Amino acid sequence: MTQPTTAALHRITIVGGGAGGLELAVRLGRRLGRKGKAHVTLVDAARTHLWKPLLHQVAAGTLDSHSDELEYLALARMHCFHFRLGRMDGLDRAHKEIYLAPTYDDQGEEVLPRQSIPYDTLVIAIGSQTNDFNTPGAKENAIMLDSTEAAERFHARLVNACLRAQAKATVPGQGRFTVTIIGGGATGVELSAELHMTAKIVSTYGLNNFDPERDVKIVVVDAAPRLLQALPAKLSDAVARELRSLDIEIHTNERVVEVTKEGVAMASGKFIPSGIVVWAAGIKVTDFLREIDGLESNRLNQLIVHRTLQTTRDPSVFALGDCAAIPQGDGQPAVPPRAQSAHQEASLLAKSLERMLAGKPLLEYTYKDRGSLVSLGHYSTVGSLMGAIARGSVFIEGTIAKWMYWTLHKQHQITVLGWLRTWLGTWAEAINWARNPRIKLH
């Protein structure tokens, strides 16, 4: 029996290799690509994948991005899908094609020309980016912590600041080097705790004249009345207490009106002199997705979809993850942009597309809130469990919460790599932990 040609196969193109997009490509590659039932292609502007909730650790230097990133080309070969490098910048629904911008290297040489990729079914999973709400000076003077490159750039500046402190003794009355984090969500609070831990560890490596308590100040600013506004108040209060015990300064109910080279100005008139400013408040989807080729979108540029994850104006175009506005029904707000949402959506859509090719109806997505966990480095982890685990919610902290936070990352690795490779990788992590410095020092 002859194998079907690529042209005869149903073409499923997935744009975006984040948590949701990559998991979907892996699942479809295993279920459809390996069996010759579909031609599955994953498109991403980067060559490697890093689980986004780890970015604050990369920024603080407690995680080396190169030790945890996954190669898309290797994953494609492993799981029977195809990978195309490029950044989507256009869509032609009439001809069922997407367009990729040219790709250049560090010297400006063209690596790949402008490309077009055909599809029968298109899944857009490009995630989100930081929303600076058009605040004056934010783009120029703040680091948007939404990519590996940004996290590494922040880490390099932090290490340089510590080295400067080593070379120059602080004189009485001189201000501390201040890191101001705008945004009191999970990314902001997790980063603040990791930075505190990083500063303490750096001081143990023999940097003369460097005292973390004297030389480094960490500030978290948020416009909401409390940190972690979207999560239960009990969790928020526990996090705030822990951060204050670490001498991390918290400013809530403070709206940032300008970011300058000297620091952060707030609507109340307060000004925080800052050496580094990180913007971690709010999200939006890239502007090019706004009503792209007639698809319906909202004010955050998210594509509006049905509960089948199909866009409202084209049943052959799906969206999932942060770039999708998915209704929950009964007057509830749209599905929140969390990693657990993307994981659930990818799992459902993999089953749905397999059913579609078999002539069966699509499944509808219902969000299941499993709770939230917030890691504060080695100091603490707090969280709330919900859904099938408990009636209502159960507050947890300490060792159990830390273990559960660690397993979230392992679950993602198991989905993408399988049990054996995840098990081997975990042992390799343990060896590296014992062999390497506790933080990245360059």
Question: How are the elements arranged and paired?
Answer:
Elements: E1 10-15, H1 19-33, E2 38-44, E3 48-49, H2 55-60, H3 65-68, E4 70-71, H4 72-79, E5 82-85, E6 87-92, E7 97-101, E8 103-104, E9 110-112, E10 115-118, E11 121-124, E12 129-130, H5 138-141, E13 143-144, H6 148-167, E14 177-182, H7 186-202, H8 212-215, E15 216-221, H9 233-245, E16 249-251, E17 256-259, E18 263-266, E19 271-273, E20 276-279, E21 283-284, E22 303-304, E23 310-311, E24 314-319, E25 324-325, H10 339-357, E26 371-376, E27 380-386, E28 393-397, H11 399-417, H12 419-435
Parallel strand pairs: 1-2, 1-11, 2-5, 11-24, 13-20, 14-15, 14-20, 15-16, 22-25
Antiparallel strand pairs: 3-4, 6-7, 7-10, 8-9, 12-21, 17-18, 18-19, 23-24, 26-27, 27-28
Number of helices: 12
Shape: globular
Separation, N- and C-terminal Cα atoms: 57 Å
Largest sheet: 6 strands, mixed
Query: Taking strands numbered 1, 2, ... along the chain, how are they ordered across the largest sheet?
Result: 5-2-1-11-24-23
Measured by DSSP, the beta-strand proportion falls in 25-35%
Care to describe what's here?
The chain has 442 residues and is an alpha/beta fold. It has three domains: 6-128 and 285-357, 3-Layer(bba) Sandwich (FAD/NAD(P)-binding domain), CATH 3.50.50.60; 138-280, 3-Layer(bba) Sandwich (FAD/NAD(P)-binding domain), CATH 3.50.50.60; 371-435, no CATH class. 33% of the residues lie in helices and 25% in strands. It has helices spanning 19-33, 55-60, 65-68, 72-79, 138-141, 148-167, 186-202, 212-215, 233-245, 339-357, 399-417, 419-435, and strands at 10-15, 38-44, 48-49, 70-71, 82-85, 87-92, 97-101, 103-104, 110-112, 115-118, 121-124, 129-130, 143-144, 177-182, 216-221, 249-251, 256-259, 263-266, 271-273, 276-279, 283-284, 303-304, 310-311, 314-319, 324-325, 371-376, 380-386, 393-397. The chain has a six-stranded mixed β-sheet with strand order 5-2-1-11-24-23. Strands 13-20-14-15-16 form a five-stranded parallel β-sheet. Strands 6-7-10 form a three-stranded antiparallel β-sheet, with no helix packed on it. Strand 17 (256-259) and strand 18 form a beta hairpin. The longest helix has 20 residues, at 148-167. The relative contact order is 0.14.
